[in-house]
């Protein structure tokens, strides 16, 4: 993008220290540090010295020199006290991570990897039972948030440095992956209960970011396709980016103005790219636009990591002020054993994460949610939105009656207008016929067939106005017809919504499953429950392993063990983990069989799934149609009234025009009579013996033309 809009980042509050029987000056400098990198340095030094202290003086839980240590728990504000020096270390380490997160959220956008490192070390080396804010779930959430934000910072720099589009897309995709992990943690019911009110805000921001950075990833995939002159792929990537950005915008409601500005800026960029790409492809390149799922997915590229914490690094912690209190060999041996435990945990976690990744991808591809896999319960109830419409109509019992009456009145006025215009048209046509006959009787050449003789000025005006009204009527007739169609479309639904709820419920589609279908469904749900059981057991075993490792302290044994026997002691001590490792291996091995069974069950479920999907689609369509009919009522009444007003006005004009037409036709007829009388007077007087053939012929012609011979002028008395 031409510039890089910034999204806000989540940062964590620092814990507050309570009672601790320690030197006042040390306590003051360690727990009230400045909110800057100097504060981070102070915390690291204090943490390192505590590490040296606890390895020499028995200040751990239930040890001789243990003293009460109090800290405030972040989410509840309660004071939590433990008689364990490790609790002090854990709280300092938490504050180190929180302070780094605070600094990382500032304009410089640095320090997130340090925060992730602090929380990772806290998760892997300390018990999780000290307080809620340092539980395993919360620490995992914090780690993924910090890694995601660190990757986000790297993404900003990559775009500012104009790195290659494909690399930027992969970096952005990895941001999405980290935030998805964080979102899974936020959606966990236990985590949500621990976080309290802040969970909703974090979840909303993280979900918005997932769609936003997915849009950025597809924007840059589209730019790469553009560079490769793959114009069809370019269109679908930009379209996908636009769709995902629209989802982000929906989720951004309530976010600060800076977020809205970033979204508007990104919408301008992506919208412009999409419109330009589509127009170029439609009019210039004409490449087929592939479906998005046929293209290779964007695999994230993680370019950040949790920076390790080393409590014994003298460059960070300074010199060991307790070096003379405990033999250094025991301390070193303890560190080596801790590394052996960490190695064991890393090996086990690598296997667990590999299996979890396969399981997550498999379940994502299946799109099977155990909670909604059959959704049969929804068909037993009328949805709330329909209940609302039914309730609204129950207090307006004359809804359908009023609509029908309104449309009947409209039809009556419409018919009156049509009758008036037809009568005017008939009068004009009759006048035209009589005029043509007169012309023929007078021996004039009539106009060609289809070309009426010129009407009198009065009738010409009537004809012009009639044509105008006819045109207006025809246009309005189409609207009137459409209005009646709309009424006929909605009237039945309105009657249904006004009737008993049992009829409404009966009108909604519902699935009909055979016993075999039900068996297939139950089998699928059973296997899905097995999948969840396998997940839960795996998480429980992992938690047990971590707790065992945290509690495993052999410092006392190391002090009395000869250096040459250390390796043997380590091997003996690590055997305590063999049993739980076996359980984990069995759990991981079972996954293949469970997924195979799920695959088979899903194949059998395909037909049932399709049928349920079709019924659900019909259900939703029916509900939407009924709701649309309710919402159309006011519009129909309004348009019906407008139609009545229009036709009432037109009917008045047509009635006046009809009177005018009658008068004009009468005047034209009288004029024709005068012309005939003048014409007959020009004829020679008839002989007494018999009428002249010419006059006889003229008389016959007049009679044939519809004129009575009695209307001819009488010859004078005695003329011969």
From TrEMBL:
Disordered: annotated span: 675-720
Give the UniProt keywords, A-Z. Coiled coil, Cytoplasm, Endosome
- According to the UniProt entry, the coiled-coil residues are 524-551
Q: Is Hydrolase found in the keyword set?
A: no
* Stored CDD domains: V_HD-PTP_like
PROSITE patterns, per database record:
BRO1
Show where the BRO1 domain sits. 27-359
Q: Where is it found, in Gene Ontology cellular component terms?
A: endosome
Q: Tell me where in or outside the cell this protein is found.
A: Cytoplasm; Endosome
Query: Could you tell me which InterPro entries the record lists for this protein?
Result: ALIX_V_dom, BRO1_dom, BRO1_sf
**Keyword Cytoplasm found:** yes
Pfam families for the chain: ALIX_LYPXL_bnd, BRO1
Instruction: State the Gene Ontology BP annotations.
Output: early endosome to late endosome transport; endocytic recycling; protein transport to vacuole involved in ubiquitin-dependent protein catabolic process via the multivesicular body sorting pathway
Superkingdom per UniProt: Eukaryota
Cross-referenced PANTHER family: PCD6 INTERACTING PROTEIN-RELATED, TYROSINE-PROTEIN PHOSPHATASE NON-RECEPTOR TYPE 23
The protein in question is named PTN23 phosphatase
Q: Which organism is it from?
A: Aramus guarauna (Limpkin)
Taxonomically, what lineage is the organism? Answer: Eukaryota, Metazoa, Chordata, Craniata, Vertebrata
| Designated gene of the protein | Ptpn23
């Amino acid at each position: 993008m031409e510039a890089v809009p910034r999204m806000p980042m989540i940062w964590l509050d620092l814990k507050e220290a309570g009672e601790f029987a320690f030197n006042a000056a040390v306590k003051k400098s360690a727990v009230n540090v400045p909110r800057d990198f100097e504060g981070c340095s102070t915390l690291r030094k204090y943490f390192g010295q505590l590490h040296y202290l606890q390895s020499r003086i028995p200040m751990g839980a239930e040890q001789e020199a243990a003293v009460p240590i109090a800290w405030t728990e972040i989410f509840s504000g309660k004071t939590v006290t433990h008689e364990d020096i490790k609790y002090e270390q854990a709280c300092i380490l938490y504050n180190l991570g929180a302070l780094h997160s605070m600094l990382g959220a500032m304009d410089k956008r640095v320090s997130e990897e340090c925060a992730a490192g602090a929380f990772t070390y806290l998760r892997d080396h300390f018990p999780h039972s000290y307080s809620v804010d340092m539980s395993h779930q919360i620490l995992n959430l914090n780690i993924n948030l910090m890694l995601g934000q660190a990757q986000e910072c790297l993404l900003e720099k990559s775009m500012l440095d104009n790195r290659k589009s494909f690399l930027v897309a992969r970096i952005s995709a990895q941001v999405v992956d980290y935030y998805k992990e964080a979102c899974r943690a936020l959606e966990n019911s236990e985590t949500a209960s621990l976080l309290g009110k802040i969970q909703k805000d974090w979840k909303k921001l993280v979900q918005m970011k997932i769609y936003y950075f997915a849009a950025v990833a597809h924007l840059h995939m589209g730019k790469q396709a553009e560079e490769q002159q793959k114009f069809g792929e370019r269109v679908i990537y930009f379209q996908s980016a636009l769709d995902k950005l629209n989802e982000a915008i929906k989720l951004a409601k309530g976010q600060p103005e800076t977020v809205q500005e970033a979204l508007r800026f990104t919408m301008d960029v992506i919208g412009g790219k999409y419109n330009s790409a589509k127009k170029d492809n439609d009019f210039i390149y004409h490449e087929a636009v592939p479906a998005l799922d046929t293209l290779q997915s964007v695999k994230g590229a993680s370019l950040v990591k949790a920076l390790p914490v080393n409590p014994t690094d003298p460059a960070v912690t300074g010199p060991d002020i307790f070096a003379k209190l405990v033999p250094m060999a025991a301390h070193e041996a303890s560190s080596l054993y801790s590394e052996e435990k960490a190695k064991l945990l890393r090996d086990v976690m690598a296997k667990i994460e590999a299996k979890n990744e396969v399981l997550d991808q498999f379940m994502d591809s299946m799109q099977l949610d155990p909670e909604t896999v059959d959704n049969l319960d929804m068909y037993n109830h009328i949805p709330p939105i329909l209940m609302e419409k039914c309730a609204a109509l129950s207090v307006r019992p004359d809804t359908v009656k009023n609509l029908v009456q309104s449309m009947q009145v409209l039809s009556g006025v419409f018919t009156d207008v049509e009758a008036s215009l037809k009568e005017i048209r008939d009068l004009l046509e009759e006048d035209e016929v009589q005029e043509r006959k007169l012309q023929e009787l007078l021996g004039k050449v009539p106009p060609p067939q289809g070309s009426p003789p010129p009407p009198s000025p009065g009738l010409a005006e009537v004809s012009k106005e009639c044509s105008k009204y006819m045109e207006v009527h025809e246009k309005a007739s189409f609207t009137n017809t459409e209005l009646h169609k709309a009424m006929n479309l909605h009237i039945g639904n309105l009657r249904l919504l006004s009737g008993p709820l049992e009829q409404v419920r009966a009108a909604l589609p519902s699935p009909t499953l055979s016993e075999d279908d039900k068996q297939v469904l139950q089998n699928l749900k059973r296997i899905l429950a097995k999948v969840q059981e396998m997940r839960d057991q795996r998480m429980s075993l992992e938690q047990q392993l971590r707790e065992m490792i945290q509690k495993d302290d052999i410092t006392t044994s190391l002090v009395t063990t000869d250096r040459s026997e250390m390796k043997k002691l380590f091997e003996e001590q690590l055997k305590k983990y063999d049993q739980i490792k076996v359980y984990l291996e069995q759990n991981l091995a079972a996954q293949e069989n469970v997924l195979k069974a799920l695959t088979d069950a899903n194949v059998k479920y395909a037909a049932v799934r399709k049928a349920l999907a079709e019924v659900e689609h019909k259900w939703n369509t029916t509900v939407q149609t009924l709701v649309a009919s309710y919402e159309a009522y006011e519009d129909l009444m309004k348009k019906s009234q407008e139609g009545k007003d229009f036709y009432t006005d037109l009917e008045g004009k047509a009635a006046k025009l009809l009177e005018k037409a009658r008068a004009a036709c009468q005047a034209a007829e009288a004029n024709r009579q005068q012309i005939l009388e003048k014409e007959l007077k020009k004829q020679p007087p008839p002989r007494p013996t018999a009428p002249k053939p010419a006059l006889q012929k003229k008389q016959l012609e007049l009679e044939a033309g519809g004129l009575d011979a009695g209307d001819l002028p009488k010859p004078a008395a005695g003329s011969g």
